Amino acid sequence: MQPPSRRTAERPRGFAVVELLVALTIVAILAAVVLVVVDSATNDPYASQCRAEARAFDQAVQHYYLRHEPHVWPRSGTSNSVLAVVVALRVQGDLDTTSLARAIGHLDGSQRTPVDTVKGWRYDFERHTTDATGCG
Predict the structure, then answer these.
(1) Is this prediction's pTM over 0.85?
(2) Exposure string for 4-34, b = 16+ CB within 10 A, e = fewer
């Protein structure tokens, strides 16, 4: 019987240092790519402005309803126009904007007159809340 050869007896186990460094480099590159994608998705200026506009509009509506009875406005039989709501909120002093464009600049196209395909925040006339999921 022959003793085992050195080649089979001294077989290395695990990763070599070079293999480990290559694996760590690949993981670092993938992490950097993911961070860049996430950062660009969360720092979209249009989406940030859109959400801020929806939040301001929602706060104005909530402030109005804290001061008035909810059934006072909008009156039954009136059209569901966000522009009319903005004008009423500005007249009452609940919406602090200097222009209508700043108040509804990112409004969803389906709630505009005339209707268009722009995506943005929406106002729910039944619940008196805003939905900013269309902001991006």
Answers:
(1) no
(2) eeeeeeeeeeeeeeeeeeeeeeeeeeeeeee
Nearest to 123 by CA among 60, 70, 76: 60
Task: Name the domain count of the chain.
Answer: 2
Residues 61 and 95 grouped into a single domain: yes
Q: What is the pLDDT of residues 25-40, one digit of tens each?
A: 999 999 999 988 877 6
The answer to the question of residue 9 being in a domain is no
Q: Report yes or no: 123 and 132 within 8 Å, Cβ to Cβ.
A: no
pLDDT digits (tens, 9 = 90+) for 43-83: 677 788 888 888 888 888 888 777 776 555 555 556 677 77
Residue 93 region by backbone torsions, left for phi larger than 0, else alpha for psi between -120 and 50, else beta: left
